[in-house]
């Protein structure tokens, strides 16, 4: 009789905890969906306001890029090696600047 009584008390407590957990979980799910909706709406509103300005500023066309390529000298170019993973990029840049300076003098 004692074991049945303690089991029922334990079962009752576990049901209360489980119900509480379900309500908290539902609050997080429902509240989170409303919160996400608000943040997404803010993002879309900002995109509407500033997105058109960015499109107006970015006037890159095929013709302008072709004109840039026409201006560049593609026959006289130099292959420049980038620094290796184990090399310090700043020291490599200093060495290249020194070599270029000595080459022009």
UniProtKB/TrEMBL annotation:
It is a single-pass membrane protein. Its main location: mitochondrion. Belongs to the COX16 family. GO terms for cellular component: mitochondrial inner membrane. Keywords: Membrane, Mitochondrion, Mitochondrion inner membrane, Transmembrane, Transmembrane helix. It is found in: Mitochondrion inner membrane. GO terms for biological process: mitochondrial respiratory chain complex IV assembly. This is Cytochrome c oxidase assembly protein COX16 homolog, mitochondrial. The chain crosses the membrane at residues 16-36. Pfam families: COX16 (PF14138).
């Amino acid at each position: 009789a004692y074991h049945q009584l303690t089991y029922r008390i334990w079962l009752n407590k576990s049901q209360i905890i489980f119900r509480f957990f379900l309500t908290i979980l539902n609050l997080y799910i429902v509240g989170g969906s409303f919160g996400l909706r608000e943040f997404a709406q803010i993002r879309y509103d900002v995109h509407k306001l500033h997105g058109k300005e960015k499109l107006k500023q970015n006037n890159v066309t095929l013709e302008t890029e072709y004109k840039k390529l026409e201006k560049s000298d593609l026959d006289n170019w130099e292959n420049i090696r980038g620094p290796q993973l184990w090399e310090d990029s700043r020291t490599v840049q200093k060495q290249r600047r020194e070599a270029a300076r000595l080459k022009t003098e």
